[in-house]
What does this fold into?
Amino acid sequence: MNLDYLDFEQPIADLESKIQALYNVKDKAGIVNELEALKTKSDALTKKIFSSLNDWQISQLARHPQRLYTLDYIDIFDDFIELHGDRTYADDCAIIGGIAKLDGQALIFIGQQKGRSTKEKLKYNFGMPRPEGYRKALRLMKMAEKFSLPIITFIDTPGAYPGIGAEERGQSEAIAKNLFEMCVLATPIISVVIGEGGSGGALAIGVADVMMMFEYGIYSVISPEGCASILYKDATKASAAAESLKLTSTHLKKAGLIDEIISEPLGGIHRDPNAAKQLLKNALKQQLQAIKKPTIEQLLRARQEKLLNFGKFNE
Amino acid sequence: MSWLEKILPSITSVVKKNIPEGLWRKCPKCATTVYAEELKQQNYVCPSCDHHMRLAARARLESFLDADTQVEIAPDLVTTDPLKFKDQKKYKERYSQAQKNTGEKDALVVKAGTLNKMPVIVAAFEFRFMGGSMGCVVGEKFVCAVQESIRTNAPLICFSASGGARMQEGLFSLMQMSKTALALKLLDEKKIPFISILTDPTMGGVSASFAMLGDIHIAEPNALIGFAGPRVVEQTVRETLPKGFQRSEFLLKKGLIDMICHRHQLRPKVHKLLLALHG
It folds into this structure.
């Protein structure tokens, strides 16, 4: 059992370990055909498994231990210079921010960062920002507006941190203020859900002109586990809750709640990180080009119209 | 019992509708028995211990606004059930049940009226309607309230009482947070005041959007106000929560609200504030 793979990926993991074993053979002359056959088989199996993923499996992929996090993508930008702190209380590492360039265009980058090792997880607080993280993000966004720089945000969080200090320092107010300001911020905003979009904690850096999502990302009002424990009174019913919540990119695109789905490499981002980076870079470059065309007035009018039209009801 | 009452067991129960004449009610805090008619006259504040019981949306609006000037805004909006959501029960069923139990179409009631003859727009949450949760209808009604406020140049007041965003409408519910925030930004640009009155409880997506975007934040005494529920916080940090955590008095001390106001003083207090800001 390979712990870097999810349970439904195990058959692929088994084949991959066989392929790896053959790679380690010094004299490859005799095994070329066998290696090729195994690779074809592994690809076919991956295709088969990934063509019929259910929403719970996608939720697991969105939080896959090997999935790329914000800082893993940082080299798709040029000259990233990190900027720290909310100038009031602290520097929250769960939100990374700074100045970067993409395609020669200077921009403000903001992204939520999870951690891989225990030490990192603690440093980045499992990707759960505190109010000072949101306030840092807002400070940088205001600076983007001032210097007419577009904003790119990466969303990857289980949610805003539910801690004592976070509540004391106004977690609600911090999130609310970001929504309030982002609605009319006079500079283009592009957001990408790279993994997990956890509720208000995600939205607080995700009020955007262009909302994109990686294919196996999720974006939801509540985690499947949280929903299961409240509505099903049983956290193990998370897979049923995941189906009900319609939290995958396909569902959200169909509902008109996101603008673009970025495809992932076969088997998900973690199977081919470099390809994933390239796909993301291309998508961002394209959107960045397109978003320069309308005037700021047109952009703001379209953003407001979009926000006000979110929601369905009968009269 | 709604899901929210179950996860927030410390919160006392909701004021029941249609109390028959002559019934005695027990205060959930001090257990004093109060004559129902007297309790109603006291606006559901316990005459013995001053505990502020939860108030139904309609009772709230009727007692806050001047009598006979009240016109309801967007009264007929109902959900489309955009996700066709189902857990152990269908959302549609829970919705009809909530409508039956409360007599409301959804969890927010909005009225245009006057406060000591000053025209105002007032929104009030019906907590008994699925924990006062915010889905598309609540979001849209709030936007209608703001638009009416702008159209008539009348200040906006909102009484919040909500567990947060409504899970059953998924990401549509989450988007109501940015939608209502934008509406308030447009109100802000017109320099029309918005007074946010936080009542027990104001949590999650409602607290993290319009409820915390007031020019003035007023809380009723001892209301639970926060982002994450106290149980979630307790389970996350694995330590005992400070005394009075997330209660109005705690928020006042932490600098998150302007004042705590007794329910009986709300009308004169809000009126005075509005005269100063918008007189």
User: Anything to note?
Assistant: Residues 200 and 303 of chain A are 19 Å apart (CA to CA). Chain A touches chain B through 53 residues (CB under 8 Å). The radius of gyration of chain A is 21 Å.
